[in-house]
Structure formats: structure tokens, C-alpha cells
């Protein structure tokens, strides 16, 4: 067996991947499982996007592209950011990668030295702390409160910044909380950031268009244009266009940072798939009705899920303003006992109870840095959501 590098010992595989493996196992054993763990849209990629990919293959666009993406895709991204952010980015401020995930990893790799601190408000997307650790940095977890809508406040930010702080990671709409930072929230954070010019902001906006507030989630880059060069906007087509498997994400930020990301990309993947780039360009520059059609569907499911969860004694769902998850406070179940005599001591126990007794797969909050909670995904049909909630209600009702 091989000897792993030190950095390997600092990180773990994603808990969502582990949950998916458990669901597959139970299903293979013949159990009917309602799967509420999925982090991807249940919709199919829009037809015009698929057609664009097929056309690209037929035209022979099957070779390496420039490291920072095809000129057409970069142009489409600039157009999209102008539409959504009102910001005119130059070509040298844009890069593309194999998913937002890869772009975030490369951005950290390009900027984080040993011991540098990266501020991560909790609950957080599972990958941030491990990505920071993998790059020798120190994740600094900042718990948020229900009172603040699970968003980082200006005072909390101010108190957390040290002379080692390199990044603040902001994710709005947030996975798993669905919290959306308003323009006012972002202005307050911007005030603090102006006093700390060495801190940059990684603004993960992958869910920005899946917003239930009536408008896309605002971006720090638009709210505080004077900070624009310290904000790396990361987004992609995975969630908004149901294109998770195409692996295409992008970022917009200062040319020096974008250049560094490009250097790393040139030595790792060279470029994302040429075919996916053609598809993403079609998604970003073509008709946007897919988003207009799917967001109301997500909103309806959100309402069903939140109402159903709130009606279960012991559970307190956070109503999300965006993305497709509900983060559920299950403190009311801790200390209760199952019919077979086991006491629920953690959200991991709650999650196992729901899997075994309700046949419902959810992900425990410990993976997201805030417990005791669990996350459900409503990127699945309403029938499944309703049936899963009934099963959760029954399994919770059996607790003593
Ligand atoms: N950021 C957040 C908050 C996510 O939830 C995800 C996907 O789960 C990503 C980034 C990465 O998406 P992708 O790499 O598919 O662009």
C-alpha cells in the first residue's frame, strides 16, 4: 500500500458522497429509500444546450482550448455577468474550470500559504474547510445564529479578522442553509472589509439564480464596486442549468489572481472539456427560460418541504430564500429514545434513525459545521418529498 502525503491526512472524502454510497447499498439490498441527499437538479439539461454540444462535436471542436476557456465562452460569461451583476468584466478577468469546485480549489492553491487563515461562516458547504486544509491553510469556522438568519454579521467578521486572514468565503444563496445575503447585509460586510485591505472575498454564487426572493441573489461585487478587485466571483452552469455532469464553472476577478489560476490550470487539467464549454456558452448566451421555468417549481417544493417539516414535533426547518436545500434544526430530537432502545445523541444518530426507520436519506449537520441539524434536498419531485415527510413524521412520532 502507498504512503499518503501529509496533506491527505488532513482531509476526508465529502460526506455527501458517503451518504450517496449508503443509499446505493440499501437500495441494492432491496429497501425502498426516499433519497433527499442529492445536490443536483432533477431536471434534464435543456435541449438547446445539448444540441449546442452535439453541434460542437460535429464541427470538430474536440481539441484543447485556451487554458482560460474559448473566447466564445468567456464572452458569454462576460455577457451573463453584465446581465446579473451589472459589471463589465474584461476578458483578462475571466477564467473557466472543471466546475466551480475546481476553480475554488485552484484559487485557494494560488493564494494560501501555510498558516494563512480562511474565514468560513457555518453552516458551510462541506468542501471549503478541506480545500483550505489541502492547501496548507487554516480554516476558521465562524458559527452563525438563527437570529441573524444564519448569515455572518459585520461584527462577527470584524472580530474574526487577524493579520493572517487571506480570504472570507461567502456563499449566497448558501448550501445548506439557503440563506441569501441582502444588499444591506453585504454593505455592512463591505464596511468592515474596507478597513482590512489584505482580506479578499471568495463569493460562491453557484446558486445565485435559484432564488425565491423575486430577484437573483445580490453579489458583493455589485453592492460594493470599490471592492471588486478583492472579490472573486465564482459561479457555473451546474445548478442553474442542470448541468452538473458537464463539469463547467467559472470565476471573475482581478487579472493577477485569474492569471495565477490559469497557470495552475495549465499544469493540471490544461482546460475544461471543449464540448462542455460549447454547451455552457449556449446556456449563458441563449434563452434564459429554463431558469424562469424551474425556479417556481423549486419554490413550490420548498413551500411543501418547509410546511411539512415544521408540522413535525421536534423539527425546526430554516426556510431557505435560495438554493434547493432545507437545513433542519433537530435539537428537539436529541435525547429521545428509539423503539429499540437507542438514545439519539447526535445529528448523526438522527440521520441513521431516519434512514433505518423511515427509509429517508438525509445528510447530518456535522458535515456542514453546525449541529444538531440535518439537510434535506428538494431537488426531487413533490411526490417523493411528501412521502418522505410522512415517513419522517412517523419515525419521529415513534420516539420516546
Ligand atoms: N459551491 C457550492 C456551495 C455547491 O453546493 C457546489 C456543488 O455542490 C459547488 C460550489 C460546485 O459546483 P460545481 O463544481 O458543479 O460547479
From TrEMBL:
Keywords: Aminotransferase, Pyridoxal phosphate, Transferase. It is an enzyme of class 2 (transferase). Residues 33-392 form the Aminotransferase class I/classII large domain. Gene3D superfamilies: Aspartate Aminotransferase, domain 1 (3.90.1150.10), Type I PLP-dependent aspartate aminotransferase-like (Major domain) (3.40.640.10). Its EC number is 2.6.1.-. Its cofactor is pyridoxal 5'-phosphate. Pfam families: Aminotran_1_2 (PF00155). InterPro entries: Aminotransferase_I/II_large, AspAT/PAT-like, NHTrfase_class1_PyrdxlP-BS, PyrdxlP-dep_Trfase, PyrdxlP-dep_Trfase_major, PyrdxlP-dep_Trfase_small. One of its GO terms (molecular function) is transaminase activity. One of its GO terms (biological process) is amino acid metabolic process. Belongs to the class-I pyridoxal-phosphate-dependent aminotransferase family. This is Aminotransferase.
Amino acid at each position: 500500500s502507498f504512503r499518503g502525503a501529509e496533506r491527505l491526512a488532513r482531509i476526508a472524502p465529502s460526506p455527501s458522497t458517503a451518504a450517496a454510497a449508503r443509499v446505493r447499498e440499501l437500495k441494492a439490498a432491496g429497501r425502498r429509500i426516499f433519497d433527499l441527499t442529492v445536490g443536483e437538479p432533477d431536471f434534464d439539461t435543456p435541449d438547446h444546450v445539448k444540441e449546442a454540444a452535439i453541434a460542437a462535436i460535429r464541427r470538430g471542436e474536440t481539441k484543447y482550448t485556451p487554458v482560460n476557456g474559448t473566447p466564445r465562452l468567456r464572452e458569454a460569461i462576460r455577457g451573463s455577468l453584465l446581465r446579473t451583476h451589472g459589471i463589465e468584466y474584461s476578458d483578462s478577468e475571466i477564467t473557466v474550470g472543471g466546475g466551480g469546485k475546481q476553480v475554488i480549489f485552484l484559487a485557494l492553491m494560488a493564494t494560501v500559504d501555510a498558516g494563512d487563515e480562511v474565514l468560513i461562516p457555518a453552516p458551510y458547504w462541506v468542501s471549503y474547510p478541506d480545500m483550505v486544509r489541502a492547501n496548507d491553510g487554516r480554516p476558521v469556522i465562524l458559527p452563525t445564529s438563527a437570529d441573524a438568519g444564519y448569515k455572518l454579521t459585520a461584527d462577527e467578521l470584524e472580530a474574526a479578522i487577524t493579520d493572517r486572514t487571506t480570504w472570507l468565503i461567502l456563499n449566497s444563496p448558501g448550501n445548506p442553509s439557503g440563506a441569501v445575503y441582502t444588499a444591506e447585509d453585504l454593505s455592512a460586510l463591505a464596511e468592515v472589509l474596507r478597513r482590512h485591505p489584505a482580506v479578499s472575498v471568495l463569493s460562491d454564487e453557484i446558486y445565485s439564480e435559484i432564488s425565491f426572493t423575486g430577484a437573483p441573489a445580490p453579489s458583493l461585487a455589485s453592492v460594493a464596486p470599490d471592492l471588486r478587485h478583492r472579490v472573486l466571483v465564482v459561479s457555473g452552469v451546474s445548478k442553474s442549468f442542470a448541468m452538473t455532469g458537464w463539469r463547467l464553472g467559472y470565476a471573475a476577478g482581478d487579472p493577477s489572481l485569474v492569471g495565477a489560476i490559469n497557470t495552475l490550470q495549465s499544469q493540471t487539467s490544461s482546460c475544461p472539456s471543449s464540448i462542455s464549454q460549447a454547451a455552457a456558452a449556449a446556456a449563458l448566451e441563449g434563452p434564459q427560460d429554463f431558469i424562469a421555468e424551474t425556479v417556481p417549481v423549486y419554490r413550490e417544493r420548498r413551500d411543501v418541504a418547509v410546511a411539512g417539516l415544521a408540522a413535525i414535533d421536534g423539527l425546526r426547518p430554516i426556510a431557505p430564500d435560495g438554493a434547493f436545500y432545507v437545513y433542519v434544526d433537530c435539537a428537539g430530537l436529541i435525547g429521545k429514545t428509539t423503539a429499540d432502545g437507542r438514545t439519539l445523541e447526535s445529528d448523526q444518530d438522527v440521520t441513521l434513525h431516519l434512514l433505518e426507520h423511515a427509509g429517508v436519506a438525509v445528510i447530518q449537520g456535522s458535515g456542514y459545521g453546525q449541529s444538531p441539524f440535518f439537510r434535506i434536498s428538494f431537488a426531487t419531485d413533490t411526490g417523493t418529498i411528501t412521502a418522505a415527510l410522512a415517513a419522517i413524521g412517523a419515525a419521529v412520532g415513534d420516539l420516546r
